[in-house]
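User: Just a sanity check before I run the rest of the batch. Below are the structure tokens for the first item. I only need the designed sequence back.
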């Protein structure tokens, strides 16, 4: 009996020791890229491929709620939201957009709902969420954009619609020879709407919002201006970095210039990030090369992560990326790093842990 008791105590202590570094991570005032990030209940934050929106004095982190195993690569719960006042301690605020129990619904269990982003529309006073949607059972074949709206940042968000964006319209910078459907995916998809996978949203200084999505079979990004209420494409869009094989777009603006950090195409496996700059959001965009500074391996893999969003913070920026764990999706990690500048280029350096006062607007 005593031996059994000792064994139980040993197991409990071993468990506590294993959990200790993770819990410490949340409470020491620092960000720990790649580690377990416990929420207010001590549970690893479940908001993958996400984005952070600031509204009032609160930050809202929206992301894909993943379940365990490879099932977690599909949606079974919905879009999770967490709140924070300091970007360090996050409170679980539940599911902002729920998956439907109805098997015929667009957002049914087993569909793919990725990379949700939320923006606030000052005119309609609605919170608008966009995400990449693939209908259940079709893998990544549908490649659609979904939109949901809410009156409050925590939701509940109501699903509005999904579509292939920009059906029937040519981008502002199409060439005549590209309008032949046998020659280009953009012409192939002209009538039905464009292929749209990895995506982000960006609101410019004048309140105009853009949907940036990987299109044309993932080979070319589109920057698509939204309607004034942010719920649809306006019909004005541009192809950027044509044939550049960019996805996981992250867009930000500094000193009147637009910056983009993207990944290459290798599914869940990490690859080298790329960065670009432009004077106008529709381009032309110029390459600034790999933003990662560090070892060859860090440069080749972006520290094992893939970008998802960027948080403007005190004149500077925090780059948010995911370290995917497709075999056990719920265990995916968050890679947040402060962005710094080198010769006018945005750069990222690895840090085991860092504090928010390292974020600076200095260039
Ligand atoms: C990545 C993409 C992820 C997910 C994954 C599926 O390239 O960035 O959001 O779609 O592929 O393999």
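Assistant: Here's the designed sequence for the first item:
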């Amino acid at each position: 009996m005593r031996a059994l008791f000792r064994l139980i105590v040993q197991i409990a202590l071993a468990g506590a020791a294993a959990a200790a570094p993770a819990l410490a991570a949340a409470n020491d005032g620092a960000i720990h890229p790649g580690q377990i990030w416990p929420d207010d209940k001590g549970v690893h934050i479940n908001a993958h491929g996400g984005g952070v929106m600031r509204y009032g004095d609160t930050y809202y982190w929206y992301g894909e709620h993943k379940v365990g195993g490879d099932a977690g690569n599909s949606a079974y719960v919905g879009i999770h939201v967490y709140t924070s006042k300091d970007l360090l301690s996050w409170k679980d605020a539940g599911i902002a957009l729920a998956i439907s129990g109805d098997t015929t619904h667009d957002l049914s269990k087993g569909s793919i709902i990725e990379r949700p982003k939320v923006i606030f529309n000052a005119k309609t006073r609605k919170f608008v969420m966009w995400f990449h949607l693939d209908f259940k059972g079709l893998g990544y074949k549908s490649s659609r954009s979904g939109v949901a709206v809410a009156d409050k940042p925590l939701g509940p968000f109501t699903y509005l619609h999904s579509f292939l964006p920009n059906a029937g319209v040519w981008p502002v910078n199409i060439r005549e020879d590209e309008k032949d459907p046998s020659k280009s995916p953009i012409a192939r998809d002209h009538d039905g709407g464009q292929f749209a996978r990895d995506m982000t949203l960006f609101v410019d200084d004048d309140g105009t919002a853009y949907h940036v999505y990987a299109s044309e079979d993932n080979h070319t990004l589109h920057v698509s201006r939204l309607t004034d209420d942010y719920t649809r494409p306006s019909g004005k869009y541009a192809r950027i970095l044509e044939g550049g094989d960019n996805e996981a777009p992250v867009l930000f603006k500094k000193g009147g210039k637009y910056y983009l950090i993207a990944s290459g195409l290798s599914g869940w496996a990490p690859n080298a990030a790329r960065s670009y700059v432009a004077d106008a959001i529709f381009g032309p965009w110029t390459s600034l090369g790999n933003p990662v500074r560090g070892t060859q391996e860090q440069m080749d893999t972006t520290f094992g992560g893939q970008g998802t969003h960027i948080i403007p913070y005190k004149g500077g920026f925090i780059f948010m990326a995911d370290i995917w764990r497709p075999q056990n999706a719920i265990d995916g990690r968050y890679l947040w790093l402060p962005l710094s500048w080198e010769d006018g280029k945005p750069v990222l350096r690895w840090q085991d842990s860092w504090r928010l006062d390292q974020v600076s607007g200095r260039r």
